[in-house]
Write a structure and sequence with these properties.
Elements lengths: L2 H17 L3 H15 L4 E8 L4 E9 L13 E3 L5 H4 L1 H5 L8 E4 L8 H7 L2 E11 L2 E11 L7 H21 L1 H8 L11 H18 L5 E8 L2 H8 L1 H19 L6 E6 L2 E7 L3 H16 L7 E7 L10 H17 L6 E2 L4 H8 L16
Parallel strand pairs: 10-11
Antiparallel strand pairs: 1-2, 1-6, 2-3, 4-5, 5-6, 7-9, 7-10, 8-9
Helix pairs in contact: 1-2, 1-6, 2-6, 9-10, 10-11, 12-13
Length: 372
């Protein structure tokens, strides 16, 4: 397809999205337009759900394989398995740079699972382009060609970057009402869930725990980012915001290891993770990974993490307030000790005593959430 053909394809894609009557029709028009413009056999559009740490497929268009539905009910993949969207975008954009598409091949040596997925589905090559809304990675455009077709090249990657920008503009128009709903439960800086979403999820989870007993493990991880004030004071609040966004991406990436986990920013330098189902040991292992990755960030001074889980000996948990008090007490102890690893309530019995003591007791300086 020559320059004129590609220009017509871009215009056609934009027009098709503008004519769509519903968000579902809009993403289908985007995927179809991109597939035709790229001479692909298959295209998909996925959204990065930061609070779940998942890439959720919104539409599969073109020659679908077994198990690939046009509008899948819940086809999603942990960003831990496909980490490009979280790992390189922030740094690439520093200094005014922009997102750029990349090419993968079934026979290439690029690390990751995309080549494996191509081989499994009988496809030879793919191009992946980040979709960016309001300066933040929203998701990705994926276009593939079957085995035997010509491989994508760098020119195709450049064109896919343009198509992703056109798709982003179309999504911004069609997504306004849905965005208003999401914002009620989303932290605007990091794109993670907010405190309201955490409260709702914990209430639901603890009710499930009460019905199902010890078999339903509910865990809460509270994280306090170290060194944010120093970054704000010495480098400016823009760099502080960057640190918050980078740590939010780390937490989302690690949280994706735990099925169904909710990742949130509570406010300021405080973050949390809610897990329902996985064992306390699994949650602790993931939290250790969070601590390791946070220590490697180019800004800040790591993170202090506290864990409270019904899978540990912490006594009855009748409300989310008690789980928060336990996790807060553990996090407080981790911060005071400058611990490079999480402190776990129940495994450290002093944490349980601290959480259950009367607020303001002698010799203890701490802060807990006052939610009933």
């Amino acid at each position: 397809m020559g320059v004129d053909g590609r220009l017509r394809a871009v215009v056609g894609l934009a027009q098709a999205m503008a004519a769509a009557c519903a968000p579902r029709d809009s993403v289908r028009a985007a995927a179809r337009g991109a597939r035709l413009a790229m001479d692909g056999s298959f295209a998909a559009i996925s959204a990065w759900e930061r609070e779940r740490g998942r890439l959720r497929v919104l539409v599969n268009e073109g020659e679908r394989r077994d198990g690939e539905e046009e509008f899948p009910e819940d086809e999603s993949y942990p960003v831990h398995d496909f980490p490009e969207i979280t790992e390189f975008l922030h740094e690439r954009w520093v200094g005014g740079g922009g997102p750029h598409a990349w090419v993968d091949s079934a026979v290439g040596d690029r690390p990751g699972r995309r080549g494996e997925a191509l081989r499994r589905r009988g496809r030879g090559t793919c191009v992946v382009a980040p979709i960016v809304l309001s300066g933040r990675a929203w998701g990705e455009l994926y276009v593939a060609r079957d085995e035997g077709m010509a491989d994508f090249d760098e020119d195709d990657a450049e064109f896919a970057t343009v198509l992703a920008a056109v798709i982003a503009a179309g999504l911004a128009q069609s997504d306004r009402l849905e965005e208003a709903r999401r914002l009620a439960f989303t932290d605007p800086l990091t794109g993670l869930a907010n405190r309201r979403a955490v409260d709702m999820r914990l209430d639901e989870a603890l009710e499930e725990h009460r019905r199902g007993g010890a078999g339903v493990v509910v865990s809460l991880v509270v994280c306090d980012l170290n060194g944010l004030k120093k970054v704000n004071d010495t480098l400016g609040h823009a760099m502080g915001d960057r640190l918050l966004e980078r740590f939010g991406s780390v937490l989302s990436l690690c949280g994706a290891i735990l099925p169904g986990a909710l990742v949130a920013r509570l406010g300021g330098d405080e973050f949390c993770l809610v897990s329902v189902g996985p064992s306390a040991d699994e949650v602790v292992r993931v939290t250790e990974e969070v601590c390791l990755r946070a220590a490697e960030l180019e800004l800040g001074e790591g993170v202090a993490c506290g864990v409270a889980s019904t899978g540990d000996p912490i006594g009855p948990v009748k409300s989310s307030r008690r789980l928060f008090r336990l996790a807060d007490a553990a996090q407080y102890k981790a911060k005071a000790a400058r611990s490079a690893k999480p402190v776990v309530a129940g495994r450290d019995t002093a944490v349980v005593r601290l959480a259950d003591a009367e607020p303001g007791g002698p010799g203890e300086r701490r802060r807990f959430r006052g939610r009933a």
